[in-house]
Amino acid sequence: xxxxxxxxxxxxxxxxxxxxxxxxxxxxxxxxxxxxxxxxxxxxxxxxxxxxxxxxxxxxxxxxxxxxxxxxxxxxxxxxxxxxxxxxxxxxxxxxxxxxxxxxxxxxxxxxxxxxxxxxxxxxxxxxxxxxxxxxxxxxxxxxxxxxxxxxxxxxxxxxxxxxxxxxxxxxxxxxxxxxxxxxxxxxxxxxxxxxxxxxxxxxxxxxxxxxxxxxxxxxxxxxxxxxxxxxxxxxxxxxxxxxxxxxxxxxxxx
Length: 255
Hints:
It is a single chain. This protein has four helices and 17 strands. By secondary structure, the chain is α+β, with helices and mostly antiparallel strands. The longest helix has 28 residues. The N terminus is likely disordered.
């Protein structure tokens, strides 16, 4: 609905009307004939369907399509480059940098330099610029150091940022004594009572089960779950349902 002032012009496609009074115009799109009502007169203005078809500038549309196709080709170039080089990432500002998770899900496009130092003489033994964070660097740097020394009769010492089970296992398989600081248990994984934190559970390696501080046996179904970059197994027991100290051990409602 449209209200117009007296003596104003109303422009309907290819039709111009000069009004004498306040007009109320309605136009249902599905109808071909339109009615303009002016108090107290009323008359129809027949319009043809093609009178309402907008004028299309085909040349401008062709230009826009050409620009979009050109932009599309620009995006295709990195895609082809990734396929040719077998890479998963590509930086357009620094071709050799990669995105790395730094901490608490913070990701930066950067490098990561690893270094090995002899603690007796404080001399650098080796260094390497990588695109991996510390959780995947321990075993590789240990292998490089072993190659430089020509033996594995040394102890590898690293901070808690290198604490990854798979990396430590590989170091042991190379016969390298490895000491890595144990990270603190995240607040979200801590028990209401510190006496029931994960480090208080004893693991029986031979029989693959845990004993909780209350002496209950926690077993698993033997399945390894892949939670990148870790592999985990779930241990549980039905004894949790009736445990008298459950509130001290967990806040989970699933046990």
